[in-house]
Amino acid sequence: MASRALSALPIPTSFSPSSSKPYFPSSLSHPLRLRLRTLRRPLSLTPRRTITTMVLSMLPTAKPERAASAEKIPKWSARAIKSFGMAELEARKLKYPNTGTEALLMGILVEGTSEAAKFLRANGITLFKVREETVNLLGKSDLYFFSPEHPPLTEPAQRALDWAVDEKIKSGKDGEITTTHMLLGIWSEKESAGHKILAALGFNDEKASELAKFLS
């Protein structure tokens, strides 16, 4: 599937809630707005071809060879795609210029129906707590700053997504890349905001191993 770049507004140098520099991968997926609209439609009213196209979409990747041969790469699940869209929205709500691992974590919880989201809530990690920890860790942005429509990924967030893809490929199993892969990708970025927030809320390597049992 061909990919095209998402446009982003210039990022101000006066504010950066994350220590990581914004990351602009050379190949990005189609805009998520169309995909999220598709997700909101009743299945009975959504053409089968549109659903298939949405589900087979790829999230942003830093590896151009993946975009060039998308048909050979495992596809992201509909829940993972929606979680990514919600992550961008959470970054915008907080007026952050980037989508970091903390936003990816919030996106999983906002989507809420995946095994990863249920596991987090069962372990006392809620959206409210993650938002609170995010502000404590990264601070608040300028009241009058407007976040880009698609806040670019930070380097740790991009590596977390690519880790998820690599892990699925290494497993040799059929199926899609899920929010569980995404969550474990966030945890793999030890110095990222998402990892620090998870650790502060009681997530650890033992829980990561328990969560990994849901991988398919």
Percent range for helical residues?
A: 40-55%
Helix-strand pattern: HHHHHHHHHHH
Average pLDDT rating: 79
Contiguous low-pLDDT stretches (5 residues minimum) are: 1-16, 18-56
- Beta percentage is under 5%
Number of helices: 11
Number of strands: 0
Q: In one word, what is the shape? A: globular
Major beta sheet summary: none
Distance separating the two termini = 24 Å
Radius of gyration: 16 Å
**Content-based structural category:** mainly alpha
Explain the layout of strands and helices.
Layout: H1 32-40, H2 48-55, H3 64-68, H4 78-93, H5 101-111, H6 115-122, H7 127-138, H8 155-171, H9 179-188, H10 193-200, H11 205-212
Keywords: Repeat
Protein name: ATP-dependent Clp protease ATP-binding subunit CLPT1, chloroplastic-like
InterPro entries: Clp_N_dom_sf, Clp_R_N, CLPT1/2
Describe this structure in words.
The protein has 216 residues and is mostly helical. It has 11 helices and no strands. The protein has helices at residues 32-40, 48-55, 64-68, 78-93, 101-111, 115-122, 127-138, 155-171, 179-188, 193-200, 205-212. Helix 5 runs antiparallel to helix 7 and helix 7 packs across helix 10 (193-200). The chain starts with 31 loop residues before the first helix and ends with a helix. Mean pLDDT is 79; it is low at 1-16 and 18-56.
Salient structural properties:
single chain; mainly alpha; Clp_R_N; Clp_N_dom_sf; repeat; 216 residues; CLPT1/2
